[in-house]
Design goal:
This protein is of the alpha+beta class. It is built from 14 helices and 11 strands.
Length: 465
């Protein structure tokens, strides 16, 4: 058998296989016997008809296809071993020539990672978190607003009101915003800048058109920097009535007797979130530093898989908001192709980060202990609330543990990297204990991925320390 390879793309080769004619002939005769056993040729016992007669009866192509069904997997494995390839995924064999038989396959190869000099890297540690009175007041106000009630207002809308409206936005002939019968708060958090001011003054059953430009750094890339022609129709105006900040309010919010008790819990939660944000900034900086000095090559198939995972995670997050992907595409005015392309840069970043952290973990001989894996299973299950027991049972299938194991490994590698680049001692047990506290307070939000209804062990993102 002759085997040759040719590079056709990054980490992808074209594999050419020319099997020995004797091997092909033997496989074809075996195929002819199988065919004549399943459909005996008249005048002959099953499997005993002469080859030439079977060929005339069924056709040479049918015999070759039957032969390749059994022979091709063996030829492929032999060729992969002979060429010393490490495939990322199975290549699809195609027949290049029938006589002589020549097979070809495009084979994506495992990604390669060359880490930079980690010893030369460092980052500035985040300062200790201090919660200010202003931050506490903002949190209390946010909580106050979240328990506000809407009362119909028989007057034009003003800043601070909520309007029920249908919002259409176009750029040229393309609809880029399509939100029908939605409630919108008229404040400076409503994008794009100037939207609230443009709608303020409108009354119920009134329509208005105006043009606004999204910031260049707007999070939705398809809208960033674009001037959009809006058409807004208001169906109702509501005044926001916020409750008083007193003991009665605290008792309404949760199991608190006094406003001071609520304030203490809010302060503690705020401190934890700020500390988590500080750790995340350190993790982002450490990972960016390592990515910046490392080299990664991956096949297109690996990015396709990551894009699939990214869409999977996005759909899970939509589910938490009561939407599905079809509804989101309709509301956003996007096609599936546009959404996929919008996600491609982030998907490639996640892929590169995960590959680098996996290689770093190997270099540091990091491993996930049984106790850590059990805690990881427990944390994932708890995030499903009432479905926790059902999720725990799914983890009885060890195949569901592999994605979780890989996630835990990349997260551990990132924590190790942060400790190394900040100069802190690596305290593996302390990190495990810290991660073993699954309780979430009432006013904390679960990460969207952790709260999803998707399969256990779903990737939660490598940049979350």
């Amino acid at each position: 058998m002759k085997v040759s390879t040719e590079s056709i793309a990054t980490r992808e080769v074209e594999l050419t296989i020319e099997p020995d004619p004797q091997v092909v002939e033997r496989a074809k005769r075996q195929a002819a016997r199988r065919l004549s056993r399943r459909r005996p040729v008249a005048g002959y016992r099953p499997g005993k008809a002469p080859y030439a007669l079977v060929e005339r009866t069924f056709g040479a192509e049918t015999i070759l296809n039957e032969a390749l069904y059994h022979l091709a997997p063996e030829l492929y494995e032999q060729a992969i071993n002979e060429a010393e390839l490490k495939p990322y995924a199975q290549g699809q064999l195609d027949v290049e020539s029938e006589d002589p038989l020549v097979l070809k396959a495009s084979v994506p190869l495992e990604p390669t990672v060359a880490l930079g000099d980690v010893d030369a890297l460092s980052i500035t540690p985040e300062p200790d978190v201090a919660v200010t009175e202003e931050q506490i007041a903002e949190e209390m106000a946010r909580l106050q607003r979240s328990h506000a009630e809407l009362e119909p207002a028989e007057r034009p809308a003003a800043l601070g009101d909520v309007v029920q409206a249908t919002i259409l936005g176009t750029e040229g002939d393309e609809t880029v915003v399509d939100r029908r019968d939605v409630q919108v708060m008229l404040d400076d958090t409503t994008p794009p800048p100037g939207f609230a001011e443009a709608v303020a003054g409108m009354s119920a059953e009134e329509a208005h058109e105006f043009t606004l430009t999204y910031p260049d750094d707007y999070e939705e890339e398809r809208l960033a920097g674009k001037a959009v022609q809006f058409s807004v129709t208001v169906s109702a105006v509501y005044e926001v009535e916020t409750p008083e900040l007193d003991d009665e309010f605290a008792q309404t919010v949760g199991d608190y007797e006094t406003l001071e008790e609520l304030r203490e819990v809010v302060t503690e939660n705020l401190k934890r979130r700020l500390e988590a944000a500080a750790r995340q900034r350190e993790a982002d900086a450490a990972l960016a530093a390592l990515v910046g000095v490392s080299q990664v090559e991956h096949p297109a198939a690996a990015l396709d898989d990551e894009l699939h995972n990214e869409l999977h995670r996005f759909e899970a997050r939509l589910g938490q908001s009561g939407l599905n992907l079809a509804a989101y595409l309709r509301l956003s005015g996007q096609t599936m192709e546009q959404l996929t392309e919008e996600m491609r840069p982030r998907a490639e970043q996640r892929l590169v980060e995960r590959l680098i952290l996996r290689e770093y973990a190997r270099g540091q001989s990091l491993e996930i202990k049984d106790q850590e894996l059990q805690q990881g299973v427990w944390n994932v299950a708890l995030s499903y609330g009432e479905r926790a027991q059902e999720v725990l049972e799914q983890f009885n299938d060890r195949r569901n543990l592999l994605p979780l194991y890989e996630d835990l490994m990349t997260q551990k590698a990132l924590r190790h990297l942060v400790a190394r680049l900040t100069g802190r001692p690596w305290e593996e047990n302390a990190e495990a204990e810290e991660g073993a506290q699954p309780a979430v307070e009432a006013d904390e939000e679960l990460p969207a991925e952790a709260a999803s209804d998707e399969a256990p062990g779903a990737d939660e993102g490598v940049a979350e320390a």
